[in-house]
Structures are given as C-alpha cells and as structure tokens.
Amino acid sequence: MNQTEPDFWVLEYVTITKDPRTGLVVAIGGTEQAADVLQRTGGFLTSPGPRGDYHRLPHGLPIEQQRLKATTASHALLAAGHSVHLDPALNMLAAPDGDRDAALRYVTQLAERASAAETSSEMAEVLTEVAAPVHGLLPLTREVIVRAWIAASDLHGAAPGEEPEPIARLGSTANSLSEAARVILHARNHAARPAQRPVTAPAPTPAAGRAQSPVSRRR
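Now predict its structure.
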C-alpha cells in the first residue's frame, strides 16, 4: 500500500520573534483566525509588508511589555489549536537565569576545549570564539562596556572628556579590550597555520670533511 505525505499548511504556522534590525516584535504567518487572536490577546497591529500583511506590537513598548504580550498571544494561539514558535528571548515563562546559565556553560566549555585541544586548528577555533570581530566574547564584552560608559556619563550629566575619573576609565578599558582581541586574533592566525619543521643546515660530506682536516694536509 502506497502512503502519501500529508499536506501541511505551512502558512498557518505562526512565528513570534523580535526583528534584529528594527527591534519590533513581529508575528509572521497564520490565518485570519490567528490574526484575530494576536490582536485580541496580544495587542498586535496589522501592517502591510512586501509579501503581504504581518503583525507587530506597537512601537516603543518596554521590553517586559513586549515579552508579556508575546507570551500571552502565543499561549492563546496554542489554546486555539494553532502551531506557534515563540522566540525564547520573548518567553516570560522561561527560567529567569536561563540566559546567564547558558552563558556560563558556554564559557566553561570553551575553557575545557582549550585544555583538551590536541591540534593547532582546535586551539585556533577556541581563540576565534573568544575574539571573533562580531560575535566573539571580547568584542561583545567591549560593546557592553562602551554602552555602560555612555549611559553612566549621561546619568552624571557629564560632557565627553569631563566624566569622573572612574567612569572615564571605562573608555580606556574598552580600548584595552579591543587591543586584547587584536592580539588574540593574531595568535589565532598563527595557530591556524600548518606547523613547519625548522630548516637545518646539511651535514658536510665525508670528502669535504677530509679535505678540511689539518691532519690530512700534513700527510
């Protein structure tokens, strides 16, 4: 008996996520019934897009409001029988320290990988995770420091170059992190190169050795 694949209505699936470019919480996909649930339970608005209408939360909502509305809408959709994917970063019911615990596990695993590395390429991979220009640990940490420096200066009402000394040092710390990332990437590049054996001078031939022997010349 031949079995045929079932028909899946992919457009009925709803994805609720945060657009990284605009910062808006958007819901993509779904039927008219899903749109009704999004609007009634989550306060989503219908907006025209290049490939048809989509749904989004209003501009300017605090992050906690975004998470609350997205979580509420996703559970209402699930209760109504719709299939939903909710971005974990928007899930109010996720463990509050889940992101932090995951970050700690990631750093611990990197340290273990560095200790267990058996080849230069494996070590280069670890160093790449630490200092990659966009998503490396050091550049991301530097971004946090820079934003904290700017925010702290604004909170103190200080003009650039007039911050209190402890806050001003945040700027130099950010520069130090950039230099550290550069050094680590240089080491990564060196480790990624195939190892080369040192070049040694060829040993002299027996004939040449005899020709240079003082005893041979006396004979």
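The helical segments are 32-42, 63-79, 98-116, 120-131, 137-155, 165-192, 206-211, 214-218.
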